[in-house]
Amino acid sequence: MFSKQEKANFSRYWKGVFKYIFFVLFGFTALRVALLFLYDDAENVTLFSILTGILIIGVGSVLVSVLIALMAIFKER
Question: Dihedral angle at the C-alpha atoms of 60, 63, 65, 69, nearest 10 degrees?
Answer without folding.
Answer: -170
